[in-house]
């Protein structure tokens, strides 16, 4: 592509000129920034600042992935999701993932592997979600999850073989869940339980 196309310059970085905070809430902060554009000129950016989050693709010994079903008010729908939550101040992503797995699914995990991280909506939000694969699950409190007071959850054990179909048919519509499951598929996590069921280790 011609470097002159679309106003392209050596740098695409926008520089902050002025910031106005219009909302500072429990979960997020909304800023309205004036920025200098790399090719000249000024623009306004509405930016949602978010502390980041961690999410967990948790696999049980039977080859199921643990999903939580909950009503999401902004979406106006009940969604099927992997356990996840925002980082507390000073909390590392793995610590957050461990905490959320216990709170939402009522289990802890022996083995952890980082799958990756991604921006959820980089056009307006700073949120980054860190995704982990967890296995060797054990109950924190048998039969009891520990969600926050305002979280009403149902935990489902979904066969891994069905996960791709749930994405394709629109049953799973939550972005972090789609991304997390696809990252786990790419890592080959879904093949191990089925191999074990055919006489593997």
Describe the structure.
With 201 residues, this protein is of the alpha+beta class. It is built from 4 helices and 10 strands. The protein has helices spanning 93-105, 160-168, 175-186, 191-197, and strands spanning 15-24, 29-36, 42-49, 53-58, 64-72, 77-81, 84-86, 107-119, 128-139, 154-159. It has a 4-stranded mixed beta sheet with strand order 7-4-9-8, with helices on both faces. A hairpin with an 8-residue loop joins strand 8 and strand 9. The N and C termini lie far apart (52 Å). The model is unreliable at 192-201 (pLDDT under 50).
Q: Which key phrases capture this entry?
A:
four-stranded mixed sheet, elongated, about 200 residues, three-stranded antiparallel sheet, disordered C terminus, 4 helices, alpha+beta
In short:
It is built from four helices and ten strands; from the N terminus they run βββββββαβββααα. With 201 residues, the protein is α+β, with helices and mostly antiparallel strands.
């Amino acid at each position: 592509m011609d470097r002159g196309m679309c106003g392209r310059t050596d740098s695409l970085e926008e520089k902050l000129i002025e910031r106005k905070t219009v909302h500072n809430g429990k979960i997020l902060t909304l800023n309205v920034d004036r920025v200098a554009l790399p090719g000249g000129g000024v623009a306004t950016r509405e930016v949602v600042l978010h502390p980041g989050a961690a999410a967990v693709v948790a696999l049980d010994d039977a080859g199921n992935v643990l999903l939580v079903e909950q009503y999401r008010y902004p979406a106006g729908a009940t969604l099927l999701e992997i356990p996840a939550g925002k980082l507390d101040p000073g909390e590392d992503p793995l610590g957050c993932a461990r905490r959320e797995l216990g709170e939402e699914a009522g289990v802890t995990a022996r083995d952890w592997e980082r799958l990756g991280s991604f921006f959820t909506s980089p056009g307006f939000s700073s949120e980054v979600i860190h995704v982990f694969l967890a296995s060797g699950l054990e109950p924190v409190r048998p039969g009891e999850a520990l969600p926050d007071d305002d979280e009403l959850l149902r935990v489902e054990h979904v066969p891994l073989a069905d996960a791709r179909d749930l994405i394709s048919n629109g049953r799973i519509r939550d972005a972090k869940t789609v991304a997390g499951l696809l990252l786990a598929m790419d890592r080959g996590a879904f093949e191990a339980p089925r191999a074990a069921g055919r006489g593997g280790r």
